[in-house]
Design brief:
elongated; UDP N-Acetylglucosamine Acyltransferase, domain 1; Spore Coat Polysaccharide Biosynthesis Protein SpsA, Chain A; 41 strands; about 30% strand; about 475 residues; alpha/beta
């Protein structure tokens, strides 16, 4: 039998005093998503509903960021205008959960690596134990300043002691409180209302509820996580990077389960919103960012960087190519060392080769530009061959102009197409031409000076340079 529904409270009102930076730690991006955005998104993935986000300012940057990253989530907001501890922060959710009765997840906004599966497992354990409160615990290699979990002689949780208040024996305890809880609402509210502030900081600690519930005979459960690194918080730059490493491993592991083959899983960078198809092959040092989608059976070779782009099925992106804001069709090939800039569309089976740059252009099915070429603001038809060194001269110093190359055109090497210009279907452009006028269909365009060979010229030039007499006229 499945556990009942669960609400959630995300504590995001902290001042980031320990995080030495120019902005709040909750706003820092991890794999392209903010710290707090990860937490809210994962609550939603675990079917937590409603989710209440407690912030310091209803119109502040945290609210703005979460709304931008999770636009469709039915979130509720609570404000802790004065920082008075975690117990007080949870109480601020009382008005928006006034009619709610049942379990509530409480999670810090700086613990982005807690997986949805872990939230579900914690909820299930809480439900099966009939607990009043369940807290996630773990044994860390470096427990540092985490609060310690105190147990009685039977192994039952009796209290949580904040690090600053622990004696030496308690600090030696390896099991720590990871700051993720499930408690029964509104029973939790009753205990929070009875809390007293700590004399050192004047704050109300949520952890004090544990000992009070135990003293009243309420069942409190400590649920030890298999991987406590999930619940690591972000208070320093070092911890930020540690948590990012945890997230990166989680993301890669999830795609491996879905059938993606990574040749070096620890040497790729996958953004949080990247989508990979089945049987995709990813070589080392690949970076995939933003809203990128990679189709089935596509191969990405070393050093590839793709951002906010869609690559179709059975495509190949060769080494050290960069793709941004582009659409790459099925069975296309890109690179090595090619660049697709925003607005580029490659239709099926198009080929873009080494040292080719394409910007805001559509390349038709089966067309190819394989060497040392720039195509900007161009529309290229089907089965077009663009020779090495070709340039579309799209900018006149004031504005951009389009180039249109119709189906079945052959562009010879080292040609310049001065826009605006159109090359008609089936036409040929001779190598080395500078095309400034439209080329009719099935025509040959030659726009270069006629070749003249001057026999003996080099020998005469050499003799003059050496001071030897030459014949008149030479």
């Amino acid at each position: 039998m499945r556990a009942e529904r669960i609400a959630g409270i995300v504590l995001a009102a902290g001042q980031s005093t320990r995080f030495k930076a120019g902005r709040q730690k909750l706003l820092f991006p991890l794999l392209g998503r903010s710290v707090v955005g990860w937490v809210v998104r994962r609550c939603r993935q675990a079917d937590v509903d409603p989710v209440v986000v407690v912030v310091a300012d209803a119109d502040g940057p945290v609210v703005e960021q979460v709304r931008r990253e999770v636009p469709d989530a039915p979130l509720r907001w609570a404000v802790q205008a004065v920082p008075r501890g975690t117990g007080d922060a949870v109480l601020q959710a009382r008005p928006v959960l006034e009619d709610y009765q049942g379990p509530v997840l409480i999670i810090n906004g700086d613990t982005p690596a807690v997986r949805p599966e872990t939230i579900r497992s914690l909820h299930e354990a809480h439900w099966r134990a009939g607990a009043a409160l369940t807290l996630a615990t773990g044994v860390l290699a470096d427990p540092a300043a985490y609060g310690r979990v105190l147990r009685d002689e039977h192994g039952r949780v009796r209290a949580v002691r904040e690090w600053a208040e622990c004696d030496p024996a308690e600090r030696a305890i390896p099991e720590v409180n990871l700051g993720v809880y499930i408690a029964e609402w509104p029973l939790l509210v009753e205990y929070l209302e009875r809390l007293t502030p700590h004399p050192d900081k004047g704050e109300y600690y949520l952890t004090d509820v544990v000992a009070r519930m135990v003293a009243d005979g309420r069942p409190v459960v400590g649920y030890r996580l298999q991987d406590p690194a999930e619940a690591l918080g972000v208070n320093t730059w070092e911890e930020l990077h540690t948590v990012q490493d945890v997230l990166a491993r989680q993301v890669v592991r999830e795609w491996v389960r879905r059938g993606v083959h990574f040749l070096a899983p620890d040497r790729v960078w996958l953004g949080a919103d990247v989508v990979l198809g089945a049987d995709v092959v990813v070589y080392p040092d690949v970076v995939l960012e933003g809203a990128t989608v990679i189709g089935d059976r596509t191969v990405l070779y070393p050093g590839v960087r793709i951002r906010d782009s869609r690559v179709g099925a059975d495509a190949v992106v060769w080494d050290h190519s960069v793709i941004e804001g582009s659409l790459v069709g099925d069975r296309c090939q890109v690179g090595p060392m090619a660049r697709l800039r925003p607005g580029t569309v490659l239709e099926a089976e198009a080929r873009i080769g080494n040292f080719v740059e394409v910007k805001n252009s559509r390349i038709g099915t089966g067309s190819k530009a394989l060497h040392l070429t720039y195509l900007g603001d161009a529309t290229v038809g089907r089965n077009v061959n663009v020779g090495a060194g070709t340039i579309t001269c799209n900018y006149d110093g004031f504005q951009k102009h389009p180039t249109v190359i119709e189906d079945d055109v052959f562009i010879g090497s080292d040609s310049q197409l001065v826009a605006p210009v159109r090359v008609g279907r089936g036409a040929y452009v001779a190598a080395g031409s500078t095309i400034t006028r439209d080329v009719p269909p099935d025509s040959l365009a030659i726009a270069r000076a006629r070749q003249e060979n001057k026999e003996g010229w080099v020998e005469r030039r050499r003799r003059r340079a050496q001071g030897h007499p030459t014949s008149p006229g030479e």
